[in-house]
TrEMBL record:
Region described as Disordered: spans on this chain: 328-351
PANTHER family referenced in this protein's UniProt entry, alphabetically: CYCLIC DI-GMP PHOSPHODIESTERASE PDEF, SIGNALING PROTEIN YKOW
Official protein name in the record: EAL domain-containing protein
UniProt-listed PROSITE patterns: EAL (PS50883)
Positions of the EAL domain: 87-336
């Protein structure tokens, strides 16, 4: 079996035309790109498969001479999109190089328990461009998604997180994008093998569903989580109120951890609607046996309110900002505490 997104092969683009006028001009244009050896395939239904250089030429021709509203493109096995969106895809070629060169660094952020003892660190993936300047994670993931490289980027971050956990030998939370995983038995094989090769107990890893990647295929998500569970891993759900709205669904998924999103956390001490959401979230987590974690805490008032309600774990600027190396002062201050290591990547947000 070969996974669609495993390798950074040359990006091939399918283009099709609607209407007699567009089809006639497309035949004329493809004769030119065929001469340039850019055209790889042309079918009887007027669909052509072309490389990026040829696609750029063809896009220019279409915009100047054809009815652009009747021209469509897609990446292999992806949905058809209007031709005017192709330029944005062609401009994301840089993300291939970033992935190939593994230009990702893990930053750490503290997670504490109700007594403000270190319980974990969350590691956020940060990326750099050719010049060493930082790139926003949202920019990188958006480019990878547009280019069909989401699995390759997700896999890179996942493996880097596992590798980073080696010296700590403690619990590790690793975010993952369920929509990028076609078959967990195959796509997650490298993660399982790396953990085994590094001699790390799989129960030390907690895989967390990325909040911004809401899956519409619940059965597929259950398949992935079952795979993790059968391999000895734990898993967590983030931003539960958005993607998984019923107690029945949550009970079926049985997450080991549930995270309350920052939008319900920040200002909760003085906001009754947020308080009702936080209370309902807590009740749901406890009812299904999940550990509740509140993220994005920046004020002591919010921390104290959530703690009084019964929340168990907390994360946010109040306790520390992300840094390349866990703050030594924090480690010294909390040396007696149970320590875990949480590795994840976000899509542009900071705690």
């Amino acid at each position: 079996m070969s996974c669609r997104g495993c390798r950074l092969n040359e990006l091939l683009i399918e283009i099709k035309a609607e209407g007699a006028f567009n089809r006639n001009l497309l035949r004329e244009a493809t004769g030119h790109v065929r001469f340039r050896n850019a055209l790889l395939q042309q079918t009887e239904d007027e669909t052509v498969t072309i490389d990026e250089i040829g696609a750029r030429e063809l896009a220019d021709f279409c915009s100047h001479h054809m009815d652009i509203e009747g021209i469509w493109f897609r990446l292999p096995e992806g949905p058809w999109k209007p031709m005017h969106e192709l330029a944005a895809v062609l401009e994301t070629k840089w993300v291939d190089k970033l992935i190939a060169e593994q230009r990702v660094a893990i930053h750490f952020q503290i997670i504490v328990d109700a007594q403000e003892r270190v319980h974990a660190y969350e590691a956020l993936a940060r990326f750099v461009d050719d010049n060493g300047s930082l790139l926003y994670p949202n920019e990188v993931f958006t480019a990878a998604r547009a280019r069909g490289r989401l699995y390759a980027l997700d896999r890179l971050c996942r493996l880097q997180a596992v590798q980073a956990a080696v010296p700590l030998r403690t619990k590790t939370f690793i975010n993952f994008i369920p929509t990028s995983i076609y078959s967990p038995e195959f796509c997650l094989k490298s993660t399982v093998e790396l953990a085994a090769r590094l001699n790390i107990d799989p129960s030390l890893f907690v895989f967390e569903v990325v909040e911004t990647e809401k899956t519409e295929d619940l059965e597929h998500l259950k398949h992935i989580l079952t795979f993790y569970k059968n391999k000895g891993f734990h898993y967590a759900l983030d931003d539960v109120g958005e993607g998984f709205s019923t107690v029945e669904v949550l009970a079926e998924l049985k997450p080991h951890y549930m995270k309350l999103d920052r939008k319900y956390v920040q200002g909760v001490a003085g906001d009754e609607p947020k308080q009702r959401t936080a209370e309902l979230f807590l009740q749901t987590a406890l009812r299904i046996g999940s550990v509740p974690l509140a993220e994005g805490i920046e004020s002591r008032e919010d921390f104290e309110w959530l703690k009084q309600q019964g929340y168990e774990l907390f994360q946010g600027y109040l306790f520390g900002k992300p840094s390349l190396i866990p703050n030594s002062q924090q480690e010294g201050r909390h040396a007696h505490a149970e320590s875990s290591y949480v590795a994840s990547y976000d899509t542009g947000r900071s705690q």
